[in-house]
Amino acid sequence: MKKTILSILTILFLGLSTTFAADDKEIKIKTSAICEMCKERIERNLGLSKGVKESNLNLKDKVVTVKYNPDKTTPEAIKMTIINTGYDADGQIANQKAHNKLPECCRKTAAAH
Amino acid sequence: MAKYLTAGIFLLISLSLSAQRITGSVNEQIESNLKPITGANVYWSGTSQATATDTSGKFSIPRSAQSNLLVVSFVGFRNDTIKIGAESELQIVLQNDQTLGEVTVRGSSSSIDRLSPHQSEIITTRALAKAACCNLSESFETNASVSVSYSDAVTGSKQIQMLGLNGTYIQTNVENIPSIRGLASTFGLNFVPGTWIQSIDVGKGAGSVVNGYESMTGQINVELQKSDSREKLYLNTYVNNFGRAEINLNLAHQLNKKWSTGLLTHGSTLRNRIDKNGDGFLDLPLYTQYNAINRWKYQGEKVMAQFGVKALYEDRLGGQKDFKHEMRGTTQAYGFGARVNRYEFFSKVARLFPDQPYKGLGFIVNASVHDSKSYFGLNNYDGRQKTLYGNLIYQSIIGNTNHTYKTGLSYLLDNYNEQYRSISLKRNESVPGAFFEYTYNNLDKFVVVAGGRVDFHNLYGTQWTPRLHLKYKLTEQTILRASTGKGFRVSNPLAEYYGNLVSSRDVLFREAIRPEVSWNYGASVTQEFKIGNMSGNLIVDYYRTNFENQLVADLEDPRYIKFYNLPGKAYANSFQAEANITPIRRFELKLAYRLFDVKQTLKNNLDEPVLLPRMMVSRDRVLFNAGYSLPYDKWKFDFTVQWNGKKRIPYMGTMPEHHVPTDLPSTMAPSFYNLNAQITRTFPKWDVYLGGENLANFRQKNPIMGASEPFGQHFDAGMAWGPVVGRMIYAGIRYKIVR
Prior knowledge:
The complex is a heterodimer of chains A (113) and B (739). Chain A has a single domain, classed as Alpha-Beta Plaits. In chain A, strands 1-3-2 form a 3-stranded antiparallel sheet, with helices on one face. The longest helix of chain A is centred in the first third of the chain and has 16 residues, at 2-17. Residues 15-20 of chain A have low confidence and may be disordered. Chain A has helices at 2-17, 36-47, 75-85, 96-101; strands spanning 25-30, 52-58, 63-68. Chain A has 113 residues and is an alpha+beta fold. Chain A is globular and about 60 Å long. Chain B is mostly beta strands and 739 residues long. Chain B is built from 3 helices and 46 strands. In chain B, the strands form 7 sheets. Chain B has a 22-stranded antiparallel barrel. In chain B, strands 10-11-17-18-15-16 form a 6-stranded mixed sheet. The radius of gyration of chain B is 26 Å and the shape is globular. The two termini of chain B are 26 Å apart. The A-B interface holds A 1, 4-5, 8-9, 11-12, 15-16, 19, 36, 39-40, 43-45, 47-49, 53-54, 56, 58-60, 67, 103, 113 and B 39, 41, 50, 52, 73, 75-76, 100-101, 103-105, 587, 626, 628, 630-632, 634-635, 637, 639, 641, 673, 675, 677, 682-684, 695-696, 739.
């Protein structure tokens, strides 16, 4: 009984320790995000993609700051994720299909709000 | 994450209450000076009404009818949510967010409602995802106040307990419509699939009078997934090692700006015959359930309307391993079967007053038919309940929004028709009622809710139900609450003690059963604290429920189940201490201890009253939960241990034919642990989860008395006090398309 609890706790804490790995790189990418919903969508899709530790989009200057593990992903792959979410990334144009799927308020034609 | 909600708010309260707009300014603090923030978003939570601050940091927004929570957000600062009461001018100081990496909208998995005058806890979708399986009865696994109890070893029905008393004493509403009651109390919790649930609000102690007189120990309100939700499609599939398979599909579609429709569906089945303990009986009944809701919502400026239909079919088959449906009514094998059909119509219409957000008129109508047909060996039990419920609620203020009230009229029509062997129970209840609830709110610091209702019961006369709630915010971190109130309900003995019918016990109604009447008193302290980066809270509460009358289901004599009115006193004391700590970000710990002292007066064999501890109630219970997640919930780990103390179970020996002892000895069931764990991996559109329940593989030995002779005199499957099946491993996938 106690063994089971202990082993499960160990697994839990092992999970914890993996998050504090060093050697992360940071990259800043300019996007075409417009509103809070865009921010949420981009941050989530980046955050859940391989090798990405953290992503944070500043709606003031539309720049997303991404912390990633260079062994697992590349700046190109990160930009591709943004493009496939439906947004421009550093001048590269968004995937039109993905862009068309966005709600009206998040499309590039939407008025600032 | 409550700190985000309250940090750094300075409210300048102006008492000019006639203003229909909220105006104010948003600033940041630089040393001791305030600097205006330009372009901060100001919006009503959950609505599309939004504005932004101008170059001097000023904003103006009309009051919203749908929300009183004003959210102020600006990148680089912590979001602020302010509950707007009477004030019309605000000065908001946003706090600079030093930890910018985590500016994601992320609720913690369960939260204590700081604003409510009732002591309540909200279980969010996040907490529900901690235990993937399967329906409302299993949604409380990580909750300290509500626990799941085992009713019997054959039917597979699960019951919940709160404050040491059965779930039937909790008023369980689905979207504020009293729902799991009457005959549905047997399996009703299994009729709300987990993936349909958006959130659960658990309130301890006396409830609000607005929803009726039936709440005795607390109220649970379940909010289902909305038709205008951003999740267009949600598919969940689940399978476990016993062969239970489940599929849920939720669809939400916005037809146009005002209309939306939603469909919630569920299908599940278990076809495997499992008998791990080798007693010749199925550990779990075979079953199939189909369940669906379709609803429509209209959201206009002045009118909000919602209506829909629910339909449910469930078929269960249990008993001896080789029992087949065709053997029903014979002694070839002992069988249990239950077939439930339930249909429901509901509608809610609200008249809104966009210029007077505090005002509202709502009308709820609900009609349902619940039909169940069961058999236990050679005994048949059929029940049908038809219910019509209507509630008209008007809400407004007296002078200013410090004084608000809700008043209205209600009507309940309940028609019961039950037949168990030769016992026929028929009842027609027609109950018109009226209620009034006054709330005094002094800036959320001091809140009083005083309510009363009067109901004219056609069978039991006029019922008067007063209730009172107090909340006092001692400091920003300390909240005191107290409540008291009366509860009244008409019991349904056979539906509530359904599991005990799977036995050779004879059902005896010793007298006409009167309604149950109780008084509940309670008090609680909520203390929030911060040690370094570690935040947390500590909640201590005490509740006492006193019964003026209670339905007694006397199981002391193994030959009978005797129903009678309470011959003396009955009470339940509940003490609980709970600590929630977040030592580091995204890591949550919960530790709770609960003590019950529940006693009930029974009649011994000489008809003398004896006060005895209530059966099947553990005196002590400890709960520990740890949850950790990576950013965006990429990986989520969750682990729960429950320790359930000893509980009293009735005497199960043989009865001497000639000399029946006056007070029968009772037995104690041992304490046991229950371990659950789950891992979830999230992909942009998918979630995959793997988990286990009862990982310590604890099983009650011989949960069925006299299993070898089910048609004999000593057969009793209603004495299950622990898990009947062992370790359960499950896995599943969730797929979502978000708008």
